[in-house]
Amino acid sequence: MVIVRFLSCALSCLFVLPGIGAAQTAAVAAPADNHQALAIFPAPQQVEPHSGKLDLTAGIAMVQPTGDAGAGEVARMLRQWAPDHFLFASKAPQAAARLQFRRVPGMAPESYRLDISPGGARITASDDAGLRYGGVSFWQLVTASPGRVIPAQSISDGPAFRWRGAMLDSARHFQSPQYIRSFIDWMAANKLNRFHWHLVDDQGWRIEIRAFPKLTEVGAGRRPATAPGAPPLPEYRGFYSQAELRDIVAYAADRGIEVIPEIDVPGHALSAIRAYPEWGTGVAIPPGTEAHWGVFPWLYNSDETTLAALETILGEVIAIFPARYVHIGGDEAVKDQWQASPAAQARIRQLGLKDETALQGWFMGRLARYLEARGRTAIGWDEILEGDAPQSVTIMSWRGVGGAIEAAKKGHDAILSPAPQLYLNHVQALNRGDPPGRGEVISLASVLAFEPHPAELSAAEREHILGVQANIWTEHIRIEERASFLAYPRLSALAQVGWTGHGSKDYTGFLRRLMPQLDRLHALGLQPSASAWTPAIAVEPAATGGGAKITLSVQGGLPMQYSLSGAPPLPYSAPFTVPGSAEVKAWATLDGGRLGSGATRRIMPGALQRRDSRALKTCHAKVDLALEDDFPASGPRATFLIDILDPCWIYQGAMLDGVTRIDMAVGQIPFNFQVGKDRDTIKFRRPKTPAGEFEVRLDDCDGPVIATLPLAPAARNPGVTRLTAPIVPTKGRHDLCLTYTAAGPDPLWAIDEVNLLPQEQK
Ligand code: ACM
Predict the structure, then answer these.
(1) Is the pLDDT of residue 454 over 50?
(2) Residues contacting ligand 1 via CB (< 6 Å)
(3) pTM of the model
(4) Which of 195, 349, 472, 711 is 20 to 30 A from 719 in CA distance terms?
């Protein structure tokens, strides 16, 4: 591992930099121009200002040493990213500034030195990656200089971790090759270097395998689930041909990104077993296609012919993907089918193994050795440690960081990608309008603060920690733009952790550096989320004098400003009251400047207690999901926050003085979750009418019912239905528990919005 000491006092402290370029010790001060000081992303190790400036107004001519293909690729990438600035030397006017690439031996892997003087710029590195990161840093400086003038400076920089990864799940939902190329560009612009591509799972097989065409004929399509009685949704289909995959691998290589394919075994295998039932244990497969999420019991069998088929698949995989690493999964393989299978039991006896866990160990070991014999290294999720995985296997720790700790102590290399901290399929805020995802919030600040050095490891054991990775699972990410929204800006925070080698609590400092970076990514087609700095505007009836009490909140404690119905902005320091109708606009600020477009909420006297499901609390937060409605097939759909194991919500602090009615907008969604025996724990009160009813209870979920809303009108509507009912007159402020009665969990009923009304609405 490249060990470099990084100090986050970015602008004015002393650095000691073993092994980075020529500079060993240097005094550091901020370059004069603050934009420039914050231009490099992730935060660089060392910036040394010089006097003078480099003038780029005539463009930048890139001069690549003859025969240096790596420098040529960097030049091409910069030209694509900023064609107005970066010109190949042969086409550049005489007056253009020169960018030179220089190779020297002996610099640390992936590190670079970037020297900018009035006479030109020079990137020095030993390897292609170093040249590339020097090029990315230069592009970052150029795009942070609207006047096209860069202060002279020298930057010495390199990453702390050699694994700075992102995993994208293209199995649950498929993304187009064009989108994948954009995703790779955004990674490269953040100096991330490993694209872990989850290509197969129970719900989809997305890689063409020529020896087994049914994998994609059968496994690449599915009909999405719908609630009972709802109209069917169109078939969903997609896979990558080998030619497309080769193209993407080459595109990624040109941007310094290694693509690591994942073929998940022995579980997450249903799409393959549907195509080739002889690879399963003989347990009957439900007809149709797989539209459920969760953990399935289907495992590959461990027969010789199935293992030979998997080796054939891996053979085709390694012919497409030249990366040293191939991920072979190993996660969430429940052993029920092997326990019940006479063939699996006979295999255990034949191999002299203790049990099914040992059989998985043997299974994974066999495939790992197949890869090893071909010069590759297997990666497995941390479960494979349970089965005595060969020491050559690299462990990807996802069930917290314990797997990485155990792995490193046993001599395995390991990568930190713990859930939920680095699982970017979690929502990043509970803002109305944000896309679906897992319901527990993983904030930008929490990703930035992730500490990648488990204290339990000795210095020698830490050498086994290759780095960090964030994972984007796509069960609930149907649309490509939503994958971008969930990935960014949190993936930039992960990039910062991986580059600097530590988490940071300097959120504001990070945002200063992030904002220009997001502008650049935007120019590369990214639409990142602004949720981390978009205030939530909470509204409730004022305690006295009528009107509305407005409370603003935002992640990271950023300062906020607001404006009422277009009046001049005011700084926000505490909740304030609004006497009648008004439009509240609120935004966070950074160094006095406005961050993003902020949030807007219209205050109307009859709707002071209207709350979106994301402003409610689930009662027990067992498995909270922000789930999308299954209707309509095209156009906008509602998103509901719901605990799928306990659909029950708390409306906290309802002011019931004068409230006469409750309005609820509710939707029905399919219970398409494989949750094993947990399904039996989902309990409902018995319905009083055939379709059931929502019940509103006072104070807690055992309190008296103060309103009942029959679901019959909603049961006939596949979309969102508004229900309304009188509420028992009640005084004062109370929590309300909102649940429904039902015969079972399918469909799930979900709340879109609740409104407590002071009088009957005409
Ligand atoms: C995983 O999240 N099942 C690796």
Answers:
(1) yes
(2) 331-332, 381, 398, 419
(3) 0.94
(4) 472
